[in-house]
Amino acid sequence: MSKISAGLIMYRVRAGQMEVLLVHLGGPFWSRKDSGAWFIPKGEVNPEEDHLSAAKREFAEETGLKPGAGSFVPLGSVKQKSGKTVVAWAFEGDCDPGSIQSNTFTMEWPPKSGRRQEFPEVDRAGFFTREQARDKMHPAEFELLERLRKVAGAEGFAR
Question: Which residue in 26, 17, 38 sits closest to 126, CA to CA?
Fold first, then answer.
């Protein structure tokens, strides 16, 4: 059975243009990558957990921000090449991307060294316009931004 991840897309409108919050994965494998290395904040859904609750939990874990109790717009799901399904919602909000605080993970690094190091799950975040996001984010997840543009009727996020 393929894994399911759930995530939230925070968006804001600045100067008439929609921007979305994306996160860059932490750790040594992603440190020098930029194009295709930005994602929506998301994570695996635990057994017996509903998808929206998982999305809110993961958003908080990866950004240190509480998504609040506002309105969450369902964006459906996309499938990544790995077979993982990503289910997402969008909500309007704002934050200082430089102030995010991610949870951490531990792994052996360098490989076969016997040493374990701790890394942030997310090492940075930023707001991006549609065109910027197309260049930065994982291609399978870009479809979620297209759906957001359609449901939000965001002229500022135009083609």
Answer: 38
The answer to whether 123 and 24 have CB atoms below 8 angstroms apart is yes
- The CATH number that applies at residue 40 is 3.90.79.10
Q: What share of the chain is helix, strand, coil (3-state, %, to 5)?
A: 25, 35, 40
pLDDT reading at 155 higher than 50:
no
> Could you read off the pLDDT of 92-108 as tens digits, one per residue?
999 999 999 999 999 99
In a domain, 159, yes or no: no
For the entire predicted model, the pTM comes to 0.90
Q: Show the domain range for 124.
A: 4-154
Residue 117 lies in a domain: yes
Instruction: Enter the tokens of residue 121.
Output: 């799950």
